Amino acid sequence: MLQLQKVTFAYDTEPVLKNISFKIKKGQHISLIGESGCGKSTLLQLIYGLLHTEGKIFWQDKELLGPHFNLVPGEPFIKYLAQHFDLMLPLTAAENVGKHLSNFYPIKKRRRIKELLEVVEMEDLADKKAKLLSGGQQQRIALARALAKEPEVLLLDEPFSHIDHFRKNNLRRKLFAYLKEKNITCIVATHDSTDALSYANRTLVLKNGKIHADDSPENLYQNPPNKYVASLFGDVNHIMLRNLRADEDSRKRVLLYPHELKIVKKSAVKAIVEKSYFQGPDYLIKAKLNTDSILIQHENALDENMEISIAVDKKLVHQRVSRS
Ligand SMILES: Nc1ncnc2c1ncn2[C@@H]1O[C@H](COP(=O)(O)OP(=O)(O)OP(=O)(O)O)[C@@H](O)[C@H]1O
């Protein structure tokens, strides 16, 4: 188990992280999300041991004492993949992956490098010099290198940010299946809602230096505690309740994702179309609903200034309003 107790950290006077405490079971996958600058990378660096904290960090029964106590910063059983993946540019892809592997068993080393290049789908470029690889290819090599000595804990900071969409999905499925198979504990700091929703057992949300929410991705998505959390997963409407229900006269608001608003033939709730955005499988319709600007997922594009009728599941509205 990885355990953080009252971890606090400041680069200068103002703390970036304040009294962070949580536990992560061995083999769990955690996504760490929050707005840019909220301290995700700082938290990963504290766990790895690059930064010193007054709080305590344990792995199993061992306290990780941090850079004031380790001659070489960083714990040997943890691998941290930073946003800038620091490869040896004159070496080949394969040499970079094997950089920290012992030369004592050359056959075993070659086999391991091959296995890892397969995980990140880079077998074809094994002999290409790192300096000649694209940003996304370099990122995949850095991932393979982080896995080479099979860490117990893997800390990934935006690990797919340079990788194209098509390859990213495949790579994610392969990588997280590999980590599960090897029972490697993993924390992924990410802005990507797919990382946060599809591949994590649990999601930690950081805000103002604190753990703002800690729950399963399903619970956080379906019952977002507030707009901050909901908007980390994508577009979300924050609609004044009285704009949806004529009988409602309070200033309460309800959080609804664009796919939860339906355009129907008839309803008392009317909006005016402002713009349609093509998004592949459907369109995102921007419309004005009295005082609110809203987004609705819809199968067709709609004409500007057209009046539309909107329906929302009453139970869902009730559930979301009672939580907020
Ligand atoms: N070396 C540093 N010296 C001083 N301040 C820093 C340093 N590194 C980060 N910060 C500040 O600490 C805060 C947290 O930064 P951090 O990089 O941890 O955020 P983040 O959530 O990972 O951001 P992003 O999502 O944009 O990568 C920010 O306000 C940042 O400006």
Automatic annotation (TrEMBL):
Pfam families with a match to the protein in the record: ABC_tran
SMART domains named in the record: AAA (SM00382)
Single annotated GO MF: ATP binding
Domain spans labelled ABC transporter: 2-233
PROSITE patterns registered for this protein in UniProt: ABC_TRANSPORTER_1, ABC_TRANSPORTER_2
Alphabetical UniProt keywords: ATP-binding, Nucleotide-binding, Transport
Taxonomy, superkingdom: Bacteria
Protein name: ABC transporter ATP-binding protein
Gene3D superfamilies: P-loop containing nucleotide triphosphate hydrolases (3.40.50.300)
Keyword set includes Transport: yes
